[in-house]
């Protein structure tokens, strides 16, 4: 009568517990799924490619009427007609980039500008071109222009893999490190330690629940990118999954390391930020890290987030294969293996 | 002959300079409910956790059913025991039945989740998340996790601390039902009443040592044919004069008041009151009672259990 005919499977129950705990915490769900999408929307819109702003110029009342008409009617300029005094004030206040004047009707036009300003030089080139064309100038050289709007080369294409990288880092480290420290703080780990629970099941339950969420996280971000920005994974999805899994393993190992002994979630949070902050800054999630000095390049490339971002971008945007990213895969493997080896040794149940 | 459920020999545990457990010998037979009593800081929890295999003793040995814990983890032995630790908080977001199923999954054999829910009267709460439960409900779930493997030996570390009397009695009922099936229990408590209700035998611990061992009845009877008188006076009384009376066995000051142990008779009480009158003192809040386990502790240590608990920074029950 005390026998249970259909005993539950411990690995399944532990994994389910992880998944339920996660899904029932609205805060976690937001940070893992909502936050990267908000970032993608915000940054994608802020940096979407758009035509440069038309130069703002002022044309004084003394400019001859034909020139005046050409300039004020050109679609390539934003021209305002002002008195000389007002025009000069507008220039000083950088409300316009250039002033077109003609103090003497029998003399040529005068341009007033700050030649140290790139915008002013751009305005000058446009104004000149507009006037010359109006005066009948023909292009003598035929040039074929191609606009850069191909998928894979816009900012949002650069950004999305970086967001996936950040997400992998955040959810793997917090999901494991924080959860472990919390369980230790609440004396739940000691409670497990006096049951015959297999330690390997405990560890594997983190592995499986992370793997499950990994697929969901990828699906959400990739699907969102496709729907909203029309981005496509150009390489193979399998390769992308494999990179993501290696990356999750590397970050999970670091999370385990942080969660191996600590009893305070606050201290663990501090360590987590301490580890993540340099990678937020250096690993090129938002902007290329190539602007950092040359001697820093190799250390930066050895960070797990850099390796993740680089590998994901190669596959996402450049149709790269796993064979094209041996360095990145090696970096992730070393972090994962070294981290787990140390964490398992250091781990304390109480 | 079957091996005892628990046997410890010269168990010692030190934390820094402090000797938490100072050479403990205990034998608890199969089918017995054994209580470890004492104030907080007496070494009860350290003792129990060494017996559970959670804490390694500095020296001495622990055997459960004749099997020592040994150097490595002994999962076979862990299959046979159920543990409720002090202040474990289970996963907040899991429901009662999810928690019970999780713990059930760790054991090869055990009690079904439905059975546990029925035994612990958790029907109404089964779909509720752990974080939403009351203290008494949480303790019942904790007991459920300890019973999930249908253990032969159950450890309960202060299972009813902070619970109201009704919740406490509900929990006692579950423990008694477990014991009725011939299983063994080791329980720590600082509630003497709890020990009196549940335990076949009791060890009173103080400062890491056992200072008395026996059945609740024998410990009380060990105090002799006595009764206790408590009262306060406005002026301090002449203790020397009072203690020369043959019926008075001991006098203890308790704050503003006095706690007297006197012979168990009406005339003895009369003699004491006459002496107070002679000293021109009026006893305030006079009360008398028969000996309880609280008096046993007071007699053994010179401290009231509540006061001892307060010393250890424990809010008095």
What does this structure look like?
The complex is a heterodimer of chains A (350) and B (317). Chain A is mainly α and 350 residues long. Chain A is built from 13 helices and 4 strands. Chain A has helices spanning 10-23, 26-46, 65-73, 84-92, 118-134, 155-185, 188-193, 199-229, 237-259, 265-282, 294-301, 304-318, 326-346; strands at 56-60, 78-82, 98-101, 110-113. In chain A, helix 2 (26-46) runs antiparallel to helix 6, helix 9 packs antiparallel against helix 12 (304-318) and helix 9 (237-259) packs parallel to helix 13 (326-346). Chain A starts with 9 loop residues before the first helix and ends with a helix. In chain B, the strands form 3 sheets. In chain B, strands 6-7-8-3-9-10 form a 6-stranded mixed beta sheet, sandwiched between helices. Chain B has a 4-stranded antiparallel beta sheet with strand order 2-1-4-5, covered by helices on one side. In chain B, strand 9 and strand 10 (209-214) form a beta hairpin. The longest helix of chain B is centred in the middle third of the chain and has 16 residues, at 165-180. Chain B is elongated, with a radius of gyration of 22 Å. Chain B starts with 5 loop residues before the first strand and ends in a 6-residue tail after the last helix. Chains A and B meet through helix 1 and helix 7 of A and helix 2 and helix 3 of B.
Structure described in brief:
By secondary structure, chain A is mainly alpha-helical. Chain A has helices at residues 10-23, 26-46, 65-73, 84-92, 118-134, 155-185, 188-193, 199-229, 237-259, 265-282, 294-301, 304-318, 326-346, and strands spanning 56-60, 78-82, 98-101, 110-113. The two termini of chain A are 36 Å apart.
